[in-house]
Amino acid sequence: MSSITNLPHPGFDAKVVNNQPSNIPSEYVWSDEDKPSTDIKELQVPILDISSFLSGQDDHVATSQAFRLVSEAAKLHGFFLVTNHGVQEGILARAYKCMGTFFDLPASEKQKAKRKWGEISGYADSFYSELPWKETLTFRFSAEEKLRSGTETVKDYVSKTMGDGNEEFGTVFHEYSEAMNTLSLNIIEFLGMSLGIERRYMREFYRDNDSILRLNYYPPCKQPNHTLGTGPHTDPTSLTILYQDHVGGLQVFVENQWRSIAPKPQSFVVNIGDTFMALTNGIYRSCLHRAVVNKERERKSLAFFLCPQMDKVVKPPKELLEVSGQRLYPNFTWSMFLEFTQKHYRSDKNTLQKFSDWLRSKEVIDNKLAGQS
Q1: N or C: which end of the chain has fewer CB within 10 A?
Q2: What is the pLDDT of residues 78-88, one digit of tens each?
Q3: What are the angstrom distances between the C-alpha of 142 and each of 92, 189, 279, 340?
């Protein structure tokens, strides 16, 4: 089991590195096995138009066809596109503009929001031994706190961390998080229906979610064939909704080869995460993916990660157990899985299985200790 040190790198400045006459620093060079290839074919993923689903005027034939296409993709690799999603263009434009404004700030200003060890929210440049060629800014979004007390977690974080003069920044990204929360609940409801379970089940399960918004910035790199923007991993969360710019760089490992997912205007890339895979008892799959970088152009993306409420128990509904039979994963809560990926294990293709093994071994140890007391 690999472990997470999760300690910030002293500082990442792509402009300085790219202007140096030597090659990129060795800590950014990935193993030959993981280095990106230039010969990558595009992955054809289903495009889901959810306009009729959102309006409540479902065309039975069209909906059945959409269920079939999404189900096939979710069982194979877990990726699909969503169009006519109801998210206003102005929300996307404001979020993209503010993201650029933040990553263009001097390093000293970005460091004010530096992420602390073991926490979700904050700014990060690089971690680990094989360093990703990117910067990120992450926010926790709590639908539960908004429902219970009206708390706006993203705005509050920006206000407390970045200080006066950043009110617009907090407002824009809270607005974006609210839009993604609405969209993710619609998509998760659709996925539940495609599995044949009661329409409201998944929406109610995630209604009080404790989710994550991450801004990703991938600077140009003079040796893009030696490094990665994000290393190969599956998402430990439930559902990822990605808004990427026109540059592209997302790749998915399908049938033993890397395939690209090209940007499509006015669409979101959606993929299944490990927690939803466990909730469906492995029927729908999370899939290994990565991000490559570009020699000439920077790339930006916004990723919203839908997660359950922290202490909600993740276990498959009985309808799915009747279909899939034996339980593949033990019960767990999102807070347990999050702690595992933050403090014990660096996400890769084996995260869910390693977490399951860790839970089972921990249970054995706890039972032994209880027997000795």
Answers
A1: C
A2: 999 999 898 99
A3: 20, 19, 20, 20
